[in-house]
Give the backbone structure.
Amino acid sequence: MGLKRHASLAATLMLAILATSPSADAQAPKGKAPAAAPAPSGAATAPVPATQGLALQGAPQITAKSWLLVDVTTGQLLAASDPDSKVEPASLTKLMTAYLVFNALKEKKLALDMRPPVSPLAWKAIGSRMFVDPAKPATIEELLRGLIVQSGNDAAIILAEALGGSEAAFATQMNREAARLGMKNSNFTNASGLPDAQHYTTARDLAILASRLIEEHPDYYKLYSERDFTYNNIKQPNRNRLLFIDPTVDGVKTGHTDAAGYCLIASSKREQPGAGFQRRLLSVVLGTASESARAIESQKLLNYGFANFDVVRLYQKDASAASYPVWKGAANEVKAGFASNVLVTVARGQGERVKGEIERMQPLVAPIAKGQPIGTLRVRLDDKVIAEQPLIALEAIEQAGWFGRLWDTIRLWFK
């Protein structure tokens, strides 16, 4: 089918993610795109794009082997340095371990009150531990806190064996899931992050994983904000210093080995002054020189992102963007829109330069199913495409009767 180019939008800059606008629910006039307005909650999180970031002149100097800053609200990469360099992830590995456990809990393959056995391998685990007693196994819930807050290697092994039967089999699951998520430069050989030449990932891949974990498991993600956890009469603090110094930070995870250096994935959700909504940014900082350095560099990135970038909303989820002619249908038109809020991140002050451009399939011939793709939205900043999203039918259109179909067939011959 051919594509017909349609609609251009000069978006008014509005930093809005959780607020809703009554007028945004109204159908836009045919051929017109609605003005930018406050974005409601539920914005879709896209994978971290494989594009260069939007970094501005004056971006902070970050002392780390590699780093990345992403706007989780839109999935856009804001700034990065060597984001695809393969590095040892250390205990950041436990993000994948936790993600698989969260999936298993959601699918009811595990339950929070289950008590998996403690194998000799887990009991003798080296490095950071939660000190599980083989004579009194911990529950899945306790193991998750030991994994996330205390970074326990013993907890990681117990959970891996509970899901995979063995840590090696669990590593196969980790790699299968990494491939599904689009983590193209990662390979896992264990559940804890102990050094191994074939155990590696990248800042970009870790951002994809952390973003998906936050989006898909908000209830379990709350565990990452806990400042300490006591198990077996041993109280251990969360090693993420930002939890103690920045109230807007609610995760995510630290990691350290001699080879990896000091690493931190941090996420912050902040109110925008006078706007009444929140945005979430995620930083990945790998290979700093000290525990304090990883916190300082992560804080610099988060502050930079909130101070220098805005979110523009072009369309609201399920709101009619336009109506288009339908051939051979019981109705003459179909309302079109988007399955998720169309949000983009741009440098502060660039909102007026954002334009939305719709290419729709034509002719649109019934039957048309609700949710069926019928075109593509391309969002441009000046002449550069910065985002794409399918245009979908917001309603089903059944076929017309035989006479209506015959008449439209004749009309199409002369179109």
Summary: Residues 1-52 have pLDDT under 50 and may be disordered. The chain has two domains: 2-40+316-413, 66-308.
